[in-house]
Design brief:
Layout (H helix, E strand, L loop, with lengths): L16 H23 L17 H113 L2 H8 L6 H11 L4 E2 L8 E2 L1 H11 L8 H5 L3 E3 L9 E6 L2 E10 L2 E7 L3 E6 L7 E4 L2
Parallel strand pairs: 1-2
Antiparallel strand pairs: 3-8, 4-5, 4-8, 5-6, 6-7
Length: 301
C-alpha cells in the first residue's frame, strides 16, 4: 500500500506561488520522515498497515489564515495603542498650555489687583493730607478772624467811649442829634467785621459766630458798629435811602430782587467788591460785583 493512498485529492482554488511552495515543503518534509523510518526497520518487519492521517492543505490554510488574522489583529491593536498614546500626549500638551495660560492670567489679575489697591491707598493718603491741610488752613483763618474780631471789638469800645465823653460835654439837643448820626469810623467797622467772616460756612438761619446766612451776616456786621437792623433780608433792604450802583460807598447794603421783596443781601466793602454769605457751596465770600451783579443798594449810614 502506498503511504499516500489515504491522502484524498482536493481541488482548491488557485493560490499564490509562495503559499503553494510553503505547503508543498511541509508535506514533503512529512513524507521524507516516514520513508526514513521505514528503511531503518528490520528486513523481516511486517509491512506497515497503520494508516497515518496527514494534514490536508485545507487545514494548513485554515491555520495560516488564523495566524495571519491574529497578526493583523495584533498590528491593529498596536496601531490603536499608539493612537491612544498620541492622543494622551496631545491632551497632556494641551492641558499644560491651558494651565500655563491660566497661571499667566491669574498672575495678571493679581498684579492688577495689587496696582488698584496701591492706587486706592495713594488716593486715600492724598485725601487725608488734603483734609489735614484744609483743617490747618481753616484753623489759621479762624484764628485770624478771631484776632480781627477782638481788634474790632476793642476799636468799637474805644469809639463808644469817645462818643460818650463828647455827649456828656454837649447839650441835651446836641446829644439827641449825635445819637442819630454815625461816627466816621462806622463804615470801616462794618467792612472789617464782614471781611473777618470770609471763609465761614453758610447755614440757613445762621447768625454766627462761625456760620451765617445772608441777612444774619449783614445784621451782625451792623450790630458790631452799634446799629440794629431787622433780621430778614427784604426788611433790611427796605430801610435807609436807595442809592445808585455807580455811587456806592463802603458799608452800603446790596440787595438782589426788588427793594421791598429782596431775597438776598450783602455788604459793599469798596473797590467794586462785596462780602456776603452766598450759599452752602461757597459759604461767606468776597466777590466782585461783576461776579453776581446786585439789583440795587441802600445806604443806612
Amino acid at each position: 500500500m502506498s503511504h499516500t493512498a489515504h491522502i484524498p485529492s482536493h481541488r482548491k482554488p488557485r493560490r499564490s506561488a509562495s503559499k503553494l511552495a510553503l505547503r508543498a515543503g511541509v508535506a514533503g518534509g512529512v513524507l521524507s520522515t516516514i520513508a526514513v523510518a521505514g528503511a531503518a526497520g528490520p528486513a523481516s518487519a511486517e509491512p506497515v498497515t497503520e494508516t497515518i492521517e496527514m494534514p490536508t492543505l485545507g487545514s494548513l490554510g485554515t491555520e495560516l489564515s488564523s495566524a495571519v488574522a491574529a497578526s493583523a489583529e495584533a498590528s491593529q491593536q498596536e496601531a490603536l495603542d499608539q493612537s491612544l498614546e498620541a492622543q494622551e500626549a496631545a491632551a497632556l500638551q494641551t492641558a499644560a498650555k491651558e494651565a500655563k495660560k491660566a497661571k499667566a492670567e491669574a498672575d495678571r489679575k493679581a498684579e492688577a489687583e495689587r496696582a488698584e489697591k496701591a492706587r486706592q491707598e495713594a488716593e486715600a493718603k492724598a485725601e487725608r493730607e488734603r483734609a489735614e491741610a484744609e483743617a490747618r488752613a481753616e484753623a489759621q483763618a479762624r484764628a485770624s478772624r478771631d484776632s480781627a474780631r477782638t481788634q474790632l471789638s476793642t476799636t468799637s469800645a474805644s469809639s463808644d467811649s469817645g462818643s460818650g465823653s463828647s455827649n456828656d460835654s454837649g447839650s441835651s439837643a446836641g446829644s439827641s442829634s449825635e445819637s442819630t448820626q454815625v461816627s466816621s469810623g462806622t463804615a470801616a467797622s462794618i467792612v472789617a467785621f464782614a471781611r473777618a467772616q470770609v471763609g465761614d460756612a453758610y447755614v440757613t438761619g445762621g447768625t454766627g459766630p462761625n456760620s451765617w446766612d445772608c441777612s444774619g451776616l449783614v445784621q451782625a456786621a451792623y450790630a458790631a458798629a452799634g446799629i440794629d437792623l431787622p433780621r430778614i433780608s427784604y426788611q433790611q433792604s427796605s430801610m435807609g435811602t436807595s442809592v445808585s450802583l455807580s455811587n456806592l460807598q463802603p458799608g452800603d447794603v446790596l440787595y438782589w430782587g426788588s427793594r421791598s421783596g429782596s431775597y438776598h443781601v450783602a455788604i459793599y466793602v469798596g473797590g467794586g467788591k462785596y462780602v456776603g454769605a452766598q450759599n452752602s457751596s461757597t459759604g461767606v465770600v468776597e466777590r466782585s460785583l461783576d461776579w453776581d451783579p446786585p439789583s440795587g443798594a441802600v445806604r443806612l449810614l
